[in-house]
Amino acid sequence: MILRADGAQFIRFWCADDVASVIHLYFSDPWPKKRHHKRRLIQDSSLRELHRVLHVGGELRLVTDHDELWAWYEEHAQRHADLFGRQPFNPPESAGPDEIVGTNFERKYRREARPFYAMTLQKK
Ligand SMILES: C[S@@+](CC[C@H](N)C(=O)[O-])C[C@H]1O[C@@H](n2cnc3c(N)ncnc32)[C@H](O)[C@@H]1O
To answer: Where are the alpha helices (DSSP H) in 1-124?
Structure first.
C-alpha cells in the first residue's frame, strides 16, 4: 500500500502501539535554515512516537547525505539512548553493490560523490 501523507502526523495519529518491525527514513528533507529545524521529521517528540510504534527489537533506519542533518540524528540518538540502541546499518535488498539503500535519490547524487551516512536505531 502507498499512502501520501505527512509522515509525522501519520505515525502520531494513525499508528497503534507496537505495530512495526522496521521504519525506513531515507534522505528526509534537511531543512537547513535554523528557523526551519522544527520542520525536520526527527524531533524529540517524533522519536518517542516512532519508539511507541515499533516492536521491541524493531529498527528505525536513517540515511542522509546532509552533514548537519547527520549531526542532528547523532545528537537525537545520543539523547534518546534510553529508548534506542545503535546497531550497524545493513543495506536492504533494494541496494545494489556499493549502495547503501539504492533509492532514486542515492543513485542521482552518488554521481556527485556526495557523502552518505546511515544509522540503525533499535528499540530497547
Ligand atoms: C529527498 S526526497 C527522498 C525520496 C526517497 N526517500 C529517495 O531516497 O529517493 C525527500 C522526500 O520526502 C518527502 N517528505 C518530506 N517531508 C515529508 C513528511 N513530513 N512526510 C512525508 N514525506 C515527506 C518529500 O515529498 C520527498 O519525496
So the answer is: 7-14, 44-53, 67-79, 104-110
